[in-house]
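task queued by scheduler; priority normal; single chain, no ligands, no partner chains; default sampling; output format set to structure tokens
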Amino acid sequence: MALARQVITSLQADGTDLLGLKGLAVKIADDSIVSGSLLTVESNHFCVLKSRGAVLNVYDTGQYALETPDKPLLGSIAQGFFGGSSPWVYEVIYINRSKLLVRNQGIATSAEMAEMAYQVDYYIHIDSKAAALDLITHLPFNGNFIDTREVADYAGPAIEQAVNQVVQVTKMEEINEHIGEIRELVKNHLTEFLQVYGITLNDLKVLILPKDDRMRELISLQAIGLTAQEAIRYYLALRMAEKGLVSAPNAAAGQPFHIGGQPTGFYPVGPETGLQK
């Protein structure tokens, strides 16, 4: 039979935190939790106590003796009666209030239907006890953890919609000129979307690149001042140089390449060549 005044904490035996750098919430459903158990809440956590699906209390940083509808003595007797398990199923849910990094990636199409790869990195945090309640109310547990990957899955469609709103009507070569507009649009959509889950959005970064590697290299060559035709020539020369072809410099300069030297002079066409006049 478990002791009535057990200590409940998110720290493991080796001192590491159950939530780590990716965990947003962790649920501890222990049938030995009874009234009087000591609950420890770290400085970067909130804690929610639930029983039979109902929220009993939300705790800030500190240590608390749990006050539940059952009594410690009665709880121990009941546990003995139920073979060591408590008939009151309590859930202790720790919420991470630290800033966490989330990443979303996807594909959008430009006005010419060229595929563009986008990457959105952003920081989130849970700001208050009310926000912690919104999180566990609207974001369901799939197991005992809610991590940043699940937040990314939920936020993915909202980000994709905001990115496509600008990218789909913009030419590929002009997309980076609108990156500030795209960033603000994604930020507004994402802030509004995450607010329902009690999640506050902090810093956000948007990166959009052509999905095709060759197109990325051609645009990079144009970025150093080459024309479109020169960029294609230099790209060809670089690929030829990788294959060890000695004609690569000629390709870059746009000059012909002759094997054995350039032919010069005039040659008569007569009987000595085997041709008839």
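post-processing summary
- The longest strand covers residues 115-126.
- The chain has a mean pLDDT of 85.
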